[in-house]
Design brief:
4 helices; 6-stranded antiparallel β-sheet; 8 strands; two-stranded antiparallel sheet; alpha+beta; 140 residues
Length: 140
């Protein structure tokens, strides 16, 4: 499977450090993550749910291209991330309306095989380090 991390990195305008307890649904973040096999990798995630059954649920943008991500953003819309550290950079998050589970079931699940590949992740937030909130260029 192709890794689209470098493609997404070219669309990042700015990075702002953020603590894990400040994460909210719809944020685009970059971090290092230690997986079950203890290998550590760099990932860009779209946060879907910050705490469902004790885990953070996200889509790994490493698994699909920026065109697909921008199309998803256009479909759901965006909103500014609130707070002085984020507003000065005009950081946007995706507008994931309704419940996170409903959003996944209604919009994302059907595209997992075709659009989003194997991007769905259930993460142990304690294994995430160097979390950065990204200002992602969503323009074509």
């Amino acid at each position: 499977m192709a890794n689209f991390l470098s493609e997404h990195n070219t669309r990042v305008k700015s990075r702002t450090a953020i603590s894990s307890n400040k994460l909210t649904e719809g944020m685009v973040i970059k971090c290092r993550y230690a997986s079950q096999d203890l290998s550590t990798g760099e990932y860009i995630f779209l946060v879907l749910d910050t705490s469902y059954k004790g885990h953070l649920h996200a889509l790994s943008l490493n698994e699909f291209n920026s065109k697909t991500f921008r199309a998803l953003a256009a479909k759901v819309g965006t909103a500014p991330v609130l707070g002085p550290r984020f507003e000065k950079n005009n950081i946007l998050k995706l507008e994931l309306s309704g419940s996170p589970r409903g959003m996944y079931e209604g919009m994302l699940k059907s595209g997992m095989g075709s659009k989003y590949n194997t991007s769905y992740r259930t993460l142990d937030i304690k294994k995430m380090t160097g979390i950065m909130l990204l200002e992602y260029n969503l323009e074509n």
